[in-house]
Amino acid sequence: MVRITTADYEPTKELVEEALELLRLVAKTGKVKKGTNETTKALERGVAKLVYVADNTDPVEVVLHIPLLSRDRKIPYIVVPDKKQLGEAAGLANVSAAAVAIIDPGEAASMLESIVKKIEALRASAGGKSS
Length: 131
Hints:
By secondary structure, the chain is α+β, with helices and mostly antiparallel strands. The protein has one domain: CATH 3.30.1330.30. The chain is built from 5 helices and 4 strands; from the N terminus they run αβαβαβαβα. A 4-stranded mixed beta sheet has the order 1-4-2-3, with helices on both faces. Helix 3 links the parallel strand 2 (50-54) and strand 3. Helix 1 (13-29) packs antiparallel against helix 5 and helix 2 (36-45) runs parallel beside helix 3 (65-73).
């Protein structure tokens, strides 16, 4: 069960791993925004393609607005279990990240599209509205 109560679906372990692999590739070939403030700005500006939120953020209230803002802007999001793992996938050596946004998928555009479709299907089956 995710701690981020504003999330309207819970991703599968396989989807989380696939999304983190996407982030690793995008960090090398595309553009990402790291941290809660940068992610929030990317959402508000409508430039984010996919948003990641770490479930073990403490205090969790720091990131509770991100799923809400994502839904409002019709931008897909995924909750991942660990902020350290999220930071490393985003290219931050030994630094954790509470939130990350993909801005430009670089060479991973088709992988991003595939993951977004899986997220939308999971949200629809969980009763959430599709992005």
